[in-house]
């Protein structure tokens, strides 16, 4: 299997928005991507247009040139990165540009001139990294919520232990039973113990 065949083995083609100000390079890039099995949704010639097209089409990936009029690719990437992963194309390999692209959240970087065999691995890496980062962010949010729940339950246990002269396991059992009886999450029962005014009628 060649590198270009990777795209065609996906259950549904990766949907891409391309932004490149040089028309000839943009046409070649789009042709390469389409031949490799990718779905090019829209094409932009500047960074501002790229942002509009990404918002309108919600692609799986945006491929942006660094040097573009109106708004450069890295500035556009800063706006786009919350919507989809970004792959950056450039003829420049200066450290400063690479650092700016990384700080903007760019997932992969390809130097011109490039072939489809350069692009496909970079596309796969960009999408994979973005997916991992999103999963990690969701997991962290979940961990944060679990930590907050545990803190709330611990506070409620302390109040019950003092008010009802219970041991810690007994206080936990009290919250657990109240939650089961009322068909509420334990966190809600704990909040009600801490702030009785918060109990719904």
From TrEMBL:
GO terms for molecular function: RNA binding. One of its GO terms (biological process) is phosphorelay signal transduction system. The keyword Phosphoprotein applies. Residues 133-194 form the ANTAR domain. The keyword Iron does not apply. Keywords: Phosphoprotein. Residues 15-127 form the Response regulatory domain. InterPro entries: ANTAR (IPR005561), Bact_response_regulator (IPR050595), CheY-like_superfamily (IPR011006), Sig_transdc_resp-reg_antiterm (IPR008327), Sig_transdc_resp-reg_receiver (IPR001789), WH-like_DNA-bd_sf (IPR036388). This is Unannotated protein. It comes from freshwater metagenome.
């Amino acid at each position: 299997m060649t590198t270009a065949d990777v795209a065609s083995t996906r259950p549904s083609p990766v949907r891409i928005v391309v932004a490149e100000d040089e028309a000839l390079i943009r046409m070649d890039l789009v042709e390469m991507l389409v031949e490799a099995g990718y779905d090019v949704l829209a094409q932009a010639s500047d960074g501002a247009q790229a942002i509009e097209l990404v918002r309108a089409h919600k692609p799986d990936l945006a491929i942006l040139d660094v040097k573009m009029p109106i708004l450069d690719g890295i500035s556009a990437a800063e706006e786009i990165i919350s919507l989809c992963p970004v792959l950056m194309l450039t003829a420049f390999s200066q450290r400063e540009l690479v650092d700016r692209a990384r700080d903007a959240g760019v997932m992969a970087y390809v130097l011109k001139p490039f072939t489809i065999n350069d692009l496909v691995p970079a596309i796969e890496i960009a999408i994979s990294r973005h997916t991992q980062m999103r999963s990690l962010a969701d997991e962290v949010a979940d961990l944060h919520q679990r930590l907050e729940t545990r803190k709330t339950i611990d506070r409620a246990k302390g109040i019950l232990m003092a008010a009802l002269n219970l041991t810690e396991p007994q206080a936990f059992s009290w919250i657990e039973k109240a939650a089961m009886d009322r068909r509420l999450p334990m966190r809600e029962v704990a909040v009600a113990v801490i702030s009785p005014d918060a109990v719904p009628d």
